[in-house]
Amino acid sequence: MKAAVLRQTGAPLQIEQLALDPPRAGEVRVRIEAAGVCHSDYHYMKGDLAHPLPVVLGHEGAGIVEEVGAGVTSVAPGDHVVLLWRTSCGRCEFCNRGKPALCSLGAGIRASGMLMDGTSRLHASSGEEMHHFLGVSCFAEEAVCPEAAVLKIPHDVPLPIAALAGCSVMTGVGAVINTARVEPGSSVLVIGAGGVGLSVVMGAVLAGAGQIIAADLAEPKLELARSFGATHVVNAASEDVVKTVRGLTGEGVDYSFEVIGNVETMAQAVRAVRRAGVATLVGIAQMGATFSVNALDLVLQEKSIRGSIYGSTRPAADFPRLFELYKSGRLPLDRLLTRRYPLEEINEAYQAMLGGEVARSVVIPHG
């Protein structure tokens, strides 16, 4: 099968022919129909975050089950599935507390680049072993992943839409609904209007926020944010975000969301919230990155800072609701999907993402 391989940080992805072993017990083989072009993969490509190399990237995906290993009961060949890149065991403390994205089992898979038994199903033609990425590796025509990394979805949800839901949409909407728990009538600031930021805007609309302010450096992204429900926009290239937000709200917003992963904008998100405000950090920063906050504000103004990974989602409960919202027209995900690329043009897809040309795009491995 064809797959996009990262062999060296700072270098383009290489399209290679790889061998894919059959699924073992508790594993599933999926024909990948769509994989989202997400900035999280780019962090590893650039070297902001580390992963064992070589690795087949891709974590935001959806496809059709082709084969299952022994003991698999939740899916069968022919089922449509969304890939879950935060694999969880369903039994540990965090899974039982409703926080499966923090599961230690999934953390081990992500750190090792291997599957649950500590081995890989991916090999180069020379026999060289390849690493899996976040347990799913969907920048490929097919993937073998743990049963816990797939979730059956309705056949009437288009698979490219399901792919976007698998990371950017759930991350953004979930940060609003699950992590921050935005209240109706409240004010919201979203710093960064890419695919995840736009999903935060959509989540704020669903939550009934009265004022939704989007901030970005690119005017086209701000216009997109308006089309998705932002009531106000701030061009951070020419305006002071915190000052402008305070001018719009009087004191600051009830909730802010940083979806870039930049320490300066993270600090802005904290400064932009009012007394008792909640700043939620969604963007992935470089390893070791830190930022400072006014400690007195946190105490005297009772501000809160929260982290949100994968939208604090509980996949089996949250994905069905998200897809129902899409099918009822309350989540306009079709407008979020800007372009489709063949797998061979994955590096061009990333250049378009970095250039701000797209809201969200997908690669179609079998296109």
Structure notes:
The protein has 367 residues and is α/β, with parallel strands linked by helices. The chain is 31% helix and 25% strand. It has helices at 39-46, 93-96, 104-112, 159-180, 195-207, 219-227, 241-249, 263-271, 295-300, 315-327, 333-336, 346-354; strands at residues 2-6, 14-20, 27-36, 55-56, 61-68, 80-83, 122-124, 142-146, 150-152, 187-191, 211-216, 232-235, 253-258, 273-281, 304-307, 337-342, 360-364. The strands form 3 sheets. Strands 3, 5, 6, 8, 9, 16 and 17 form a 7-stranded mixed beta sheet that branches. It has a 6-stranded parallel beta sheet with strand order 12-11-10-13-14-15, sandwiched between helices. Strands 4-1-2-7 form a 4-stranded antiparallel beta sheet, with no helix packed on it. Helix 4 packs across helix 5 (195-207). The model has no long low-confidence stretch (mean pLDDT 96).
Notable features of this structure?
single chain, alpha/beta, six-stranded parallel beta sheet, about 30% helix
Please outline what is shown here.
The protein is of the alpha/beta class and 367 residues long. 31% of the residues lie in helices and 25% in strands.
Number of strands: 17
Which stretches of 5+ consecutive residues score pLDDT under 50? none
What percent of residues adopt helix (DSSP H or I)? Answer: 25-40%
Radius of gyration: 20 Å
Assembly type of the chains comes to single chain
What is the average of the pLDDT values?
A: 96
Please report which band the strand proportion falls in: under 5%, 5-15%, 15-25%, 25-35%, 35-45% or over 45%.
Answer: 25-35%
Anisotropy-based shape: globular
